[in-house]
Specification:
The protein is α+β, with helices and mostly antiparallel strands. Helices cover 27% and strands 26% of the residues. Strands 4, 5, 6, 7, 8, 9 and 12 form a seven-stranded antiparallel sheet that branches. A four-stranded mixed sheet has the order 10-11-3-13. The longest helix is centred in the last third of the chain and has 17 residues. The chain binds flavin-adenine dinucleotide. Flavin-adenine dinucleotide (FAD) binds next to β4, β9 and β13.
Length: 276
């Protein structure tokens, strides 16, 4: 995927000033990769299932509890992978106070944009954003957004939703054929909390109460795409992790979506072994 992104970024062009509206200082165009997470995440789950991974749901008070859980019917757990996101701030023996939410709000519409657009800021406040992303392989277009650091509010702000739609239609008239936001076909409104960690994502090994733990959380608003970066950051640890995962024993991952790192780089190694 890194190769694909590098290849596409070679098509990077600065837009001529004359082609921009007067309120825009500078613009660029490039091709990029769009991940439709509604398709990608179930695909990751199917890859895991195919490789013998067993999924169980549980809430842990302490990270080490994942290793002693009766969930695994006596199987010894040698490695716990901590992908708890914002939960890392409340999880016993982790209690990472540098993890904070950065609230995002989106509107998903069935209208299709002819390009992906993102701006570096808006005139509606420092914590508001403007992006238009038509999902790969269908599923509508995501209009965003905002970046409200410290806010845990999970409710849709209707005023903000209207501003999001107004900005999207203004910067991408093709969404509604040049008409107003009343011509947007809203599928749903969404709110999500990015898991921001002051100082950057935590990707490291630690031994807690005698249990080997791999932390992998705090990628902020880049958890999907940073899979590539976390892969390279963990290269040094890769041999050690692979060795651990090859120990022909249990491996418990606490958390949901971060399968991206371990499915592609590490988990499969372990899963193959578990299947034997
Ligand atoms: C509005 C918005 C826009 C975004 N845009 C992008 C983008 O353009 N590109 C990009 O790459 N990324 C983007 N992201 C970020 C991306 O969605 C996240 O980085 C990614 O979903 C994080 O996945 P995760 O598995 O690490 O954490 P999460 O998805 O937060 O999963 C953590 C899991 O851990 C579980 N958990 C927590 N505590 C416990 C416990 N004690 N016991 C058991 N389970 C526990 C939770 O229930 C949850 O299921 C965006 C996020 C938002 C909100």
């Amino acid at each position: 995927m890194l190769n694909l992104i590098c290849h596409n970024l070679q098509q990077f062009h600065q837009l001529p000033q004359g082609s921009l509206s007067p309120d825009i200082n500078a613009g660029s165009t490039f091709t990029s990769v769009c991940i439709n997470t509604a398709i990608y995440l179930p695909w990751l789950v199917s890859q895991c299932l195919n490789n013998g991974v067993i999924f169980k749901r549980a809430t842990f008070k302490h990270i080490a509890d994942a290793a002693s859980s009766s969930l695994f019917q006596g199987q010894k757990i040698n490695l716990v992978i901590n992908c708890t996101g914002l939960g890392a701030s409340k999880l016993g023996d982790v209690l990472d106070t540098s993890v904070v939410p950065a609230r995002g709000q989106i509107v998903v519409v069935s209208n299709v944009a002819d390009k992906m657009i993102a701006t570096s800021g808006t005139d509606d406040g420092a914590d508001e954003a403007c992006y238009v992303i038509t999902r790969a392989a269908g599923g509508g277009t995501v209009l965003g957004g905002c970046y409200q650091k410290g806010s845990w509010d999970s409710q849709v702000d209707r005023g903000l939703a209207t501003r999001i739609m107004q900005r999207a239609v203004a910067i991408c008239p093709s969404l509604t054929g040049g008409k107003g936001i009343e011509h947007l076909d809203v599928i749903r409104h969404g709110v999500g909390l990015r898991l921001v960690r002051e100082g950057g994502a935590r990707v490291e090994l630690e031994r807690i109460s005698g249990v080997r733990v791999v932390h992998n959380y705090g990628a902020g608003g880049a958890g999907m795409r940073s899979r590539i970066l976390t892969e390279s950051r963990t290269t040094a640890d890769h041999a050690r992790l692979s060795k651990l995962l090859r120990m022909r024993a249990g491996c418990c991952r606490v958390g949901r979506g971060s399968a991206r790192l371990f499915v592609q780089n590490l988990d499969m190694t372990g899963c193959e072994e578990f299947g034997n």
